[in-house]
């Protein structure tokens, strides 16, 4: 079997290592083989790296967000062809499907096709963060995404996003606005402009006490909200108290990217917790539903990206090209010294 270059880790908390001995896979069925041209680091990779969670095999090839070009197609592929530029959030923990290697496999219905209105680097900021926010808001809170690439008519109703200046939170704001809601976002005062730039109608200080945050939510919305999303993993208590004491809605929805902490949500509140780690894991309880939901949403989201009603995140591109640069980007992400999404070009076309 032909081999290729990529990054492996040989165990939990072991250093990243560039090797040239990774088997190069071939597509089957509806799979395509994607030449990886750019990637980035996500918090999920740091969790995998340091704990070994969500790793199916060692040595492990990590990565979730990848962008590149289709170089080979399986016999049942109908949507894509060789030469198409694509990007995605790869299923974590499955070596043949992850982007920290020269070429990786993907199901054609789980890839976004990149249009001319966004760059290669732009596309690397979209997959994991947009799909996570989609899971919370479309899958968990019941928002309906317009299918025509246009924004829905604005409702006289608020949706509250906690952690609105983070990468997932920014897409949550965009989705809420796109679906016709007025969006109230929490963030630090220094990041208020980020939330507003993405479409927030109002913001409040996430560093205030729980009671102060509830008071702000009630004052701004006048109780006219029933859907909340925590994109920060720190807002559970705020959501429960706000929905119980400040919301006038008959149906109340609490959604979170925190899929691991113990929750004790009152029965009067609908709870949904997003875990993208179940993608392409058919033998896990939520795997088939999450995978089919994402395959359904991708063409709709793709239209909005093409229309400019959903926009990529601001980002920093690491200078240079190559897998060693990816390791540098991962280290920069974990150190927090950049403060934006970090994108790395992995190889030339």
UniProtKB/TrEMBL annotation:
Residues 11-344 form the Enoyl reductase (ER) domain. It comes from the Eukaryota. SUPFAM superfamilies: GroES-like, NAD(P)-binding Rossmann-fold domains. Keywords: Oxidoreductase. Pfam families: ADH_N (PF08240). The keyword Oxidoreductase applies. InterPro entries: ADH-like_N, ER, GroES-like_sf, NAD(P)-bd_dom_sf, Trans-enoyl_RdTase-like. One of its GO terms (molecular function) is oxidoreductase activity, acting on NAD(P)H. The keyword Transferase does not apply. SMART domains: PKS_ER. Belongs to the zinc-containing alcohol dehydrogenase family. This is Enoyl reductase (ER) domain-containing protein. It comes from Fusarium gaditjirri. The lineage of its organism: Eukaryota, Fungi, Dikarya, Ascomycota, Pezizomycotina.
